[in-house]
Amino acid sequence: MDITQIIGLVAGICTSTASIPQIITTVKKKKATDVSPLMFIILLAGNSLWVWYGIEKSDFPIIATNVISVILDLTMLFLRIRYRQKTNH
Amino acid sequence: MDITQIIGLVAGICTSTASIPQIITTVKKKKATDVSPLMFIILLAGNSLWVWYGIEKSDFPIIATNVISVILDLTMLFLRIRYRQKTNH
After folding, report:
1. Which residues cross the membrane (chains A, B) (predicted)?
2. Mean predicted lDDT score pLDDT of chain B
C-alpha cells in the first residue's frame, strides 16, 4: 500500500464516518427536525455513484469508504424518518 | 471525457451539494442545535484530504468536487457557530 492509497483511505474514513456524530446526536436527542432529510438522500445517491466510479477505476479507497458511507446514509435516513413524529412537539 | 469521468463528476456533484439543503434549512430556521458541528469538522478534514488524493492521482472529478465540498463545509460550520446562541431558547 503506497502513500497515495493511505491518503485516500484516511480521506475516506473521515468523509464516511462524518455522519456518525450526527447519528449519535440524533439517537441521544430522539429528535432530528433541524436535520435535512434531502441531504442524506442526495448523499446516498452520490456515495452509490462513487462506489460505481471506484469499481470502474479499480480504486480500493474509493470503493471501501463509500460502501461504509452508503450504510451510514441509510441509517441516518431511517432515524430521520423514525423521529419525524417529534416535529410538532 | 469518458463515461467513468462523468460517473465521478455526477457522484461528486451529489456528495458536494448534499450539504446545500442543510445550509438552506439552517438559514431559514436560524437554528442548528440538532446539527452536529463535529460532523462538519470531520467532513472538512476528509474533503481536504480527498483534494490531496485527487492531485496525487491527477483525478479531475475528485479534485473539482471536493474543492466545492470544502467551501460548503466551511459555510455550514460558520452557520453552526453563528446560530449557537439559540441553543438555550
Report:
1. 37-55, 61-79
2. 87
| Domain range summary for chain B, segments of one domain joined by + | 3-88
Task: Please tell me the distance from the alpha carbon of residue A48 to that of residue A61, in angstroms, as a whole number.
Answer: 14
Query: Residues 50..79 of B with a Cβ closer than 8 Å to A: which?
Result: 50, 52-53, 56-57, 61
Residue whose C-alpha cell is 470503493 = A63
Please report which confidence band the pLDDT of residue B33 belongs to, taking 50, 70 and 90 as the band edges: confident
pLDDT for the residue B88: 46
pLDDT 10s digits, B47-75? 999 999 999 999 999 999 999 999 999 99
Contact flag A14-B45 (C-beta cutoff 8 Å): yes
Q: Say which residues have a Cβ less than 8 Å from residue B66's Cβ, sequence separation at least 6.
A: B12, B16, B47, B48, B50, B51, B54
Q: Which of A21, A32, A34 sits opposite B39 (nearest CB)?
A: A21
Rounded mean pLDDT of A10-16?
92
What's the complex ipTM?
Answer: 0.80
Tell whether B17 lies on the interface with A, counting CB pairs under 8 A: yes
For B3-88, CATH number out of 3.40.1780.10, 3.60.21.10, 1.20.1280.290, 3.90.950.10 equals 1.20.1280.290
